[in-house]
Amino acid sequence: MTTINSTIAERLSALRQGLAGQLPAEAWAAFGGEQADLDAAGSPEGVLAEGAAMPDGELLDVHGDPATLESARHGKPAVVVTYRGAWCPYCNVALRTYQEQLVPVLAERGIGLIAISPQKPDGSLSMAEKNELTFTVLSDPGNQITAALGVLTAPAEAARAAQAALGVDLTEANADGSHGVPMPTVVLVDAEGTIRWIDVHPNYTTRTEVHEIATALDLL
């Protein structure tokens, strides 16, 4: 059982143990193979580095209204988190932890938290409501920001088949009908819109810890 102060790694370890006993063996093997391949590949080349301008795009809020990262930041620094979608259990754990542990830290320093995914607005709303998120959750149709950051990927064929067997169809969940998803990434953006720190996790079963983000805030 997780506690309020447990790390994301600890929470995800508990999640994996639970999934191992729930998922069909074929699906578990497919996901395991994909994760091993992601670990072997490592971070992609071409990821935007510190000092680059944070990309933006024509985004949608949870009600389907137009939005941008710039408008969501309100001229202030922000931590921007990319996640795969409300259907991803690892994403739910990560964003729920950020709500509990990171939001208070950011509030003390006047820094916003913005989470983006390629899913439709109703998926963003579901994610926000299910996890009682008080921070901004936006849809990034077509993975505009994800692609510009250099962290766009897609599930392998075997993993897509396993997802389909479990009732997950990314072409239905994603706003653009594609299989594209972001590598879970955390970006610290300053008030001028410049990337001050970026942390990419090619393997979606791992995430940036709260203490790592808190330490990076000193770069502002």
Q: Summary?
A:
The chain is an alpha/beta fold and 220 residues long. 42% of the residues lie in helices and 15% in strands.
Structural notes for this entry:
With 220 residues, the chain is of the alpha/beta class. The protein has a single domain (8-219), classed as Glutaredoxin (3-Layer(aba) Sandwich). Helix content is 42%, strand content 15%. It has helices at 8-22, 25-41, 69-73, 89-108, 121-130, 144-149, 157-165, 170-173, 210-216, and strands at residues 59-60, 66-67, 78-82, 112-117, 136-139, 152-153, 181-182, 185-189, 195-200. Strands 5-4-3-8-9 form a five-stranded mixed beta sheet. A two-stranded antiparallel sheet has the order 1-2. Strands 6-7 form a two-stranded antiparallel ribbon. It is globular. Belongs to the peroxiredoxin family. BCP/PrxQ subfamily.
Helix content: 40-55%
Distance between the termini: 36 Å
Shape: globular
What characterizes the major β-sheet?
A: 5 strands, mixed
Poorly predicted runs of 5 or more residues: none
List the total number of helices.
9
Percent of residues in beta strands? 15-25%
CATH superfamily: Glutaredoxin
**Might you state the CATH topology name?**
Glutaredoxin
Average pLDDT for all residues: 96
Biggest β-sheet: strands ordered side by side in the sheet? 5-4-3-8-9
Helix/strand order, N-terminal first? HHEEHEHEHEHEHHEEEH
